[in-house]
Design goal:
Elements lengths: L3 E2 L8 E9 L2 E3 L5 E3 L2 H22 L7 E5 L5 E6 L16
Antiparallel strand pairs: 1-6, 2-3, 2-4, 2-5, 5-6
């Protein structure tokens, strides 16, 4: 499983904030997003990380030390996804689950 869910993380509808950590510091998410559950939160965090990586590739430099930290409405961390876990380089592409 990609990403690390925080112990005791609640799994109900709520507002989640996606903060990007990199070597330059922190990019906060001031608005957040209403999402139904932690699986959807995880999918959105992966999508965000992959989008940033994709943009970086067009610029010629990808900072794989970044990570996305997701906080709930109370400010508790519910998930962290290192960019290094969001993509796979080389080899055979993974098969879709299901």
């Amino acid at each position: 499983m990609i990403g690390v869910l925080a112990a005791g993380a609640a799994a109900d509808m709520g507002r989640y904030y996606f903060r990007v950590h990199d070597s330059g510091g922190l990019v906060p998410d001031e608005e957040g997003r209403e999402l139904p559950d932690l699986e959807t939160v995880r999918k959105q965090a992966l999508k965000g990380a992959r989008s940033i990586i994709s943009d970086d590739v067009t610029r010629g430099y990808v900072d794989m030390e970044r990570r996305i930290e997701v906080l709930d409405e109370a400010g508790a961390t519910v998930l962290e996804i290192p960019f290094s876990e969001a993509v796979t380089f080389g080899g055979t592409p993974p098969r879709p689950a299901g």
